[in-house]
């Protein structure tokens, strides 16, 4: 079944993803183009608008995905299950990252303590 895509949402999504990549990987942190830095406290930079644009895209995508669905308990159950899966994936990746850091530090400790010359 082919669904018609909304090009404006896809374009905004693509621009936002490119902006996320550019902001988070500037090449060298010692000389970053100033609009790619977050505002210190007061003020606003283009970087500070990327996450709100991303949340807007998420919200509008959910609306377009479920606008023709019947609003019943099954629809809300699907949304809840998908949300729990995404939260679980985030927790799993966080746990996996912390375990890998723990193992790396443990390896360094063992090497430093037991293989001294």
UniProtKB/TrEMBL annotation:
Keyword Membrane in annotation: yes
Cross-referenced InterPro entries: HGSNAT_cat
Segments crossing the lipid bilayer: 12-29, 49-66, 86-106
Keywords: Membrane, Transmembrane, Transmembrane helix
Name recorded for this polypeptide: Heparan-alpha-glucosaminide N-acetyltransferase domain-containing protein
Coiled-coil residue windows: none
Keyword Methyltransferase among UniProt keywords: no
Pfam families xref list: HGSNAT_cat
């Amino acid at each position: 079944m082919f669904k018609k895509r909304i090009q404006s949402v896809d374009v905004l999504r693509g621009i936002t993803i490119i902006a996320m990549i550019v902001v988070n990987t500037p090449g060298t942190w010692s000389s970053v183009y100033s609009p790619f830095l977050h505002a210190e406290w007061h003020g606003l930079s283009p970087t500070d608008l990327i996450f709100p644009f991303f949340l807007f895209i998420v919200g509008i995508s959910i609306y377009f995905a479920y606008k023709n669905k019947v609003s019943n308990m099954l629809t809300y159950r699907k949304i809840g299950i998908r949300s729990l899966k995404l939260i679980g994936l985030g927790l799993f990746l966080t746990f996996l990252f912390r375990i890998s850091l723990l193992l790396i530090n443990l390896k360094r400790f063992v090497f430093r303590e037991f293989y001294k010359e």
